[in-house]
Input
Amino acid sequence: MAPKLAQGFREANMDDLMQYLAGKEAGPFKAETYYSSDGDFMTFFLRDDQCYAERVDELLTVYRADANDDLVGCKVKGVSLLMQRLQKFGVRVTPEGGAPLSILFLSAASDRPPEQQKYYEEMGRFTSDVPLYSSVLQPA
Output
């Protein structure tokens, strides 16, 4: 695409976005999971802290607070394959929940080297009280 034409599209889209956002305020932070069917990844943030990313391996990135290195969130890739693995063991996720989010980390940790497993175990503890709903895993 020609640079001038691309710049025009960006400006038009930004103008529309700025008009849409004018006068609106962000709501309060809400800890929830987000699944991208296009990228087959899930993100989860428990806290709304400034943070940095720490890539563990090809599946897991953890987010840590800038202020104190506390765990505040994560991104896990390959969710559909992890869920297929769990279903082979009878784990079902329903619209009402049915399994904690930590079950994904159990699935992924099973074939990780020991130095990486500690991150998956940390994420499992971090998300043990977070329900995983099947509706989250559906394409938007």
